TrEMBL record:
Keywords: Acyltransferase, Transferase
InterPro entries (UniProt xref): Hexapep (IPR001451), Hexapeptide_acetyltransf (IPR051159), Mac_dom (IPR024688), Trimer_LpxA-like_sf (IPR011004)
GO molecular function annotations of the record: acetyltransferase activity; O-acyltransferase activity
CDD domains assigned to the protein according to its UniProt record, in alphabetical order: LbH_MAT_GAT
EC numbers, comma separated: 2.3.1.-
The Maltose/galactoside acetyltransferase domain, residue ranges: 10-62
Lineage top rank: taxon: Bacteria
GO cellular component: cytosol
Protein name: Acetyltransferase
Length: 226
């Protein structure tokens, strides 16, 4: 006879298999994350040092020094890895029953949602009976998600992408792509002939924050034709 205990562990939850969101250990971890969220959001901008301590305890140990603006909801935290210099604006929601990865220097606009959780679609009795599963989300380096972007489980967004405000990303987006809409679709690739750096005053540094990695400069000319 199958016991429910076999389907309610954190290991079962993060594996991508069907599981049930019960069990004492999962409840303990979820409650701890909820307490981090509560304190972090209550603090707002009043105590940056304590806020940074909460973020470090809340996220995966592999995370780097990043910025998250309150309010923020991260369901578990241990499953979310945010790399160095990433910037997460107000109102983010991350349901991380499966791993979520956000690359270095990437930016999420206000009210973005990263939702790894899934439920049965055709089998309504299984869905109403409490079963769910999760699929990972990966966002690459130097990528920008505009405000109110939703990314669903199982999606990978590449490096140097731009996702337009309000988009719902249901399929993978390759590197260097600009995508918009619901569902999001790629409308073009990055184009060096459109670089906004031509609008800067002469001598203005591209790396205003001093956070870009060392490496060869990009060549001039378009990345690709439209």
């Amino acid at each position: 006879m199958v016991t429910m205990e076999a389907y309610e562990s954190i290991e079962k939850m993060t594996s991508g298999d069907w599981y049930v969101a019960t069990g004492a250990e999962r409840e303990r971890v979820a409650q701890q994350a909820a307490m981090y969220a509560h304190e972090f959001n209550q603090l707002g901008p009043t105590d940056p040092k304590r806020s940074a301590e909460i973020v470090k305890a809340w996220l995966s140990p592999e995370s780097g020094q990043c910025t998250i603006k309150a309010p923020a909801i991260i369901e578990y935290g241990f499953n979310t890895t945010i790399a160095e210099h990433a910037f997460i604006n107000f109102g983010v929601t991350i349901l991380d029953i499966a791993p979520v990865t956000i690359g270095a220097r990437s930016m999420l606009g206000p009210n973005c949602s990263l939702l790894t959780a899934g439920h049965p679609v055709d089998d309504w009795q299984m869905r109403s009976g409490g079963w769910e599963n999760g699929s990972p989300i990966s966002i690459g380096q130097d990528t920008w998600l505009g405000g109110n972007v939703t990314v669903v489980g199982g999606v990978s967004i590449g490096d140097r992408c731009v996702i337009g405000a309000g988009a719902v990303v249901t399929k993978d987006i390759p590197d260097d792509c600009i995508a918009v809409g619901n569902p999001a679709r790629v409308i073009r690739k990055r184009d060096k002939s459109r670089y906004e750096r031509t609008q800067l005053p002469e001598g203005a540094p591209l790396d205003a924050f001093g956070i870009l990695p060392e490496g060869p400069k990009e060549s001039e000319g378009p990345e690709s034709s439209e």
